[in-house]
Amino acid sequence: MGGYFQLAKPRIGVMIALTAVTGYLATVAPGEINLSHLLVLSLAMMMGSASSSIFNHFYDRDIDRLMKRTCQRPFAVRSVASPQLVLWIAASLLVFGCAMATYVFNPTVAAHLFLGAFFYGVVYTIWLKRRNWLNIVIGGLAGSFAVLAGAAAVNPDQWFLPMLLAIVLFFWTPSHFWALAMRLKDQYAAAGVPMLPVVVGNVRTSRYILINSLLLVFSSLLPWFLGELGNIYGIGALALGVYLLRCNWALIKEPDEKTAMTNFFASMKYLGGLFLVVIMDVHLPL
Which of 139, 154, 206, 214 is the most exposed place for a label (fewest CB within 10 A)? Predict the structure, then answer.
């Protein structure tokens, strides 16, 4: 049973749900939070994430066997008794999640949920992962759709701030994942996956990470510059940006695996902090 739970990549599902919740809380008026809506939104998003994750496990089972990090996954070790049944479960999760989002909220939420699953399961996994180093850049749009779904659950016509936050998510993903890919470069090379460090090496990847993070920090300040969020967010986003860029600069000086993992975890702290200051800015009675 644990193997089937692993197929759903629950940690990714929780992160997608938290991203959608942030989009919801960034859009809903103070004092109008509906906890049952938050629960349904989280459940629907986790269903969509689980669906695309199961498909990712199935499609990548051949290259998963070639990487130490993934060689014990259920499909890789052939511990799944009926792969076809699991794929039907994945499809059912996506259909049920979209149906739930449509019934409780509106079709826009369901569309964003579907697009997030599509970009991860099809655009990233099938079209790009094995072909181009831009795989995680374009495939990373999957996370951006989560914040749009959360905002649409409140008001599908209120799109400007959610779009700005989606842009932040778009730029966050490469800085986050390229740092991990530096740690796993040899494994990706053995599996024939052209992640950026495999293609250009760790030194140039560290530079790409810094350039991307500069775009990330700039995009994170746009909601403040454009008056969509206030000073709690602006000061918090600026401080978090300085923290992330300092970590990236350390990676420029020492582009090794240890510093890369420091950047990987720093990017997670950055995003969590950014979510927090968004919520504080909207809902603290200041």
Answer: 214
- For residue 2, pLDDT over 60 is answered with no
Residue type, 83: P
Task: Tell me the C-alpha to C-alpha distance, in Å, between residue 101 and each of 8, 179, 259.
Answer: 19, 34, 41
Does the pTM surpass 0.90? The reply is yes
**Treating both helix axes as pointing N-terminal to C-terminal, what angle do 107-118 and 35-59 enclose, rounded to 10 degrees?**
30
- For the chain, the C-alpha Rg in angstroms (whole number) is 19
Give residue-wise pLDDT tens across range 185-197: 999 999 999 999 9
Residue 72, CB half-sphere, CA atoms under 13 Å: how many?
A: 5
Q: How many angstroms separate the CA atoms of 173 and 181, rounded?
A: 12
Query: Which amino acid type is present at position 52?
Result: S
CA distance 54 to 203: 34
